[in-house]
Fold this protein.
Amino acid sequence: MDPTTQGPSATHPISLKAITEQADRATSIVAQARGVMLAPDARKLPPTFSATQLVERLKIERSQYDYRVRNPGGLPTGRLTSTGARREFTLSEMRQWARHYRADHLRPEGGEAITISTAHFKGGSSKTTTATTLAQGLSMRGHKVLVVDVDPQGSMTTLFGFLPDAEVDVTQTLLPLLSGDEPDVNYAIRPTYWDGVDLVPSSSPLFSAEFILPTRQLKEASFQFWRTLDFGLDPIRSKYDVIICDTPPSLSFLTVNALMASDGIIMPLPPSNLDFASSAQFWDLFKDLADDFASRGAGKDFAFINILLSKVKYAAPKDNTGQSTAIIREWIQAAYAERVLPVEIPDVEAVRTASKEFGTVYDASRDNASTRTFKSAFEAYDRFVDLIEQQMETFWQRQVGG
């Protein structure tokens, strides 16, 4: 028999040393894969935008754009392509336009950053993609964003261009804050390739926080494990407009810290039986935790809790899969009522392709972005970002008494 076609064998014991070698080999291959995807730079680069994209994304009149190109008034005018047929803008330039034309939508004077967490029990719900795309979308609209990777898997860290276990030391994660060695998160903040978005990265050693936090709770009489991240974010809330936390797919000590630091929660929820049942389990356990915190005098109010239908498959009317999805969608609506956002993220090839290339649909090149499936994904995510921004504005109005 050809040895390449044989299945795995259990005839030889696997030592701990072999596991170490396997881990090193896998990390090396991931680094090579990223190098191929991102060649020749081996670093992620932000997209550029056409004049049409700038006008559509910022919802400004074409006449306003034409006037500003002729009379900049301090705004960047981009650069003409080699043929001179069209003008293109960098992400940084687009953000300058956004802050000029969208000033009424930005954080008001006296307001502080709103903190939002994405959460779900089950992996594969698009939790990390949702958090990353939200950060990118809000940045394009002129907001200054901090993303905090609370998940030891480091998927968000990877999407922002860093390999968690190869390029992120444990001292650069949340662990020094959670262990009491650092007073706030300033030490861990780093810039990313995406203008307007900074990152607190993660790597697998962050998992030890699941042992450190309960140990501190036992040893320190006044210690509140669920407030550690909340207190650690306080000094930087005036530096950012939005703080977005991506949590592990579990209701762990890390997830609880993120939720208790948040003003809003977003749960991406694919309309499937398992995901729907998992979501109910999540909220049931969170309810028990909330009751426990309330008994300790730890009150907590959220500005919003949203359910985002994600990875929605659209099928022909006679397709059983489509009928099943419609039924589960009705269950989700009945369970979560007004908390279900009026937008659905489609499960299209555009989203899957972007994920394979260590990115999101907002990372897409202009050539890809012109395809029909990309447009449907763009429109869905743009609508999602708009809905979140509206709730952010309401939060700030309450905050400053407007």
Q: What stands out?
A: The chain has a mean pLDDT of 87. The CA atoms of residues 227 and 257 lie 6 Å apart. The longest strand covers residues 304-312.
